[in-house]
Specification:
The protein is about 45% helix and about 10% strand. By secondary structure, the chain is an alpha/beta fold. It has 2 domains: about 190 residues, Vaccinia Virus protein VP39 (Rossmann fold, 3-Layer(aba) Sandwich); about 110 residues, no CATH class. A 7-stranded mixed sheet has the order 3-2-1-4-5-7-6. Helix 2 packs across helix 15.
């Protein structure tokens, strides 16, 4: 019961022809919201464009008082995820919403959903009415990618480390202490071998993402993710990383992503009327957008799934519909994409900022985080 019909042909894209988008792939956003918001630097009144995905980052953008946020996704299931979270903000208090989405334990999710559903559009209401068990188990665990991490948590981690070692990983330490713990206690031969096997291109494609999502991937997938994981465990602070907490324990604990923090609940709630959710591809949406009409772009990791030619076309449409000073943010995992040289006078990479943001991103498995800024067209 986790599938609904594919989107009609007019909203499909290159990647839709390669993979099934009728299921929930991401119940959460696995891109660091704090880094994204700082990079976008949304100003009051800005017109924003966002890939819907798991909804968290799109909703977080509302907290910065934009004029509008247009969220697009070619998956009806992903739009339903975003719309349920938005309905929760509209109808529930902060603690109730954490329970509904599975960010906090609950025995009353069915009752909370019954209240939140009053704010759902008809298609999303019908979708979730037919999925009571998903609601009861907690939405945040419902995606294919979240189930992949759950398998890692239940099967792989216990073969490598005891619960005592796992808990010790999340104890606060200074930088030298984190490096010493990683080198002397965590980074053993079994960890490296099982990690490489589980996060290989084949296994991750089969269980976590989709094998066709790696069509344009470059290099050794597992080896690059292992290096990024070492950075997260030894250089960054695991004790304050909500994404690592979820992977390790299946819950956030006292560390919450931006969208679920109490101080952001009301700013998001009061701007919900500025959210527009559309069933459409990034390509078709940007191609149809008016020139000089958008200020901020959250493109997620959309280029991961597109050919170089299709990526260049998206960049060209971004440059065409971006107002001078607009910011464009996107993540590269295994398929490196940057704006083509032909757009050098229209989109300027903010290279120093991009590297700085990427170095501290709590969602550590991406190979790069890119931020571009639109320039005024030359006369």
């Amino acid at each position: 019961m986790d599938r609904i019909p594919q989107p009609p042909p007019e909203v499909r894209s290159e990647v839709a022809a390669e993979a099934d988008f009728s299921l929930i792939r991401y119940a959460q956003c696995w891109e660091d919201t704090d880094v994204l918001l700082e990079a976008l630097a949304i100003r009051p009144g800005d017109a924003c464009f966002s890939v819907g995905s798991g909804g968290d980052n799109t909703l977080a953008m509302l907290s910065r008082d934009p004029g509008r946020v247009v969220a697009v996704d070619l998956s009806p299931a992903q739009n339903a995820v975003l719309e349920l979270k938005a309905a929760g903000f509209a109808m529930l208090g902060h603690d109730e919403l954490l329970e509904l989405v599975g960010a906090a334990p609950s025995a009353r999710r069915a009752r909370l959903y019954a209240h939140a559903r009053n704010a759902l559009p008809p298609a999303a209401r019908a979708y979730w009415d037919a999925r009571a068990r998903v609601i009861e188990r907690g939405l945040s665990a419902a995606g294919k990618f979240e189930r992949y991490f759950a398998l890692f948590r239940r099967v792989v981690l216990p073969l490598v480390h005891s619960r005592r070692d796992l808990d010790a990983l999340f104890e606060p330490r200074d930088a030298a202490g984190r490096r010493r713990f990683y080198d002397e206690r965590w980074n053993n031969r079994r960890w490296r071998a099982l990690f490489r096997a589980f996060f290989s291109r084949r296994v991750m494609g089969w269980l976590g993402r989709d094998t066709r999502f790696f069509r344009y991937a470059e290099g050794d997938v597992a080896e690059r993710i292992l290096a990024r994981t070492e950075h997260a465990l030894a250089e960054l602070d695991p004790s304050s990383n909500p994404y690592l907490h979820w992977i390790a324990y299946g819950r956030f604990g006292s560390t919450l992503p931006y969208v679920w923090r109490a101080e952001n609940h009301e700013p998001i709630r009061r701007n919900l009327a500025r959210l527009e959710v559309r069933l459409a591809s990034v390509e078709s949406s940007l191609a149809a957008a008016a020139g000089a009409s958008l200020d901020r772009f959250n493109l997620s990791d959309v280029f991961e799934y597109l050919s170089p030619e299709a990526s260049d076309a998206v960049f060209a449409d971004v440059a065409r519909c971006a107002r001078p000073g607009a910011r464009v943010a996107y993540w590269n995992m295994m398929a490196p994409r940057r704006r083509p040289e032909a757009l050098a006078g229209r989109l300027r990479p903010l290279e120093d900022e991009s590297r700085r943001f990427h170095s501290r991103a709590a969602t550590f498995f991406y190979g790069a985080f890119e931020v571009d800024q639109a320039e005024a067209p030359r006369a």
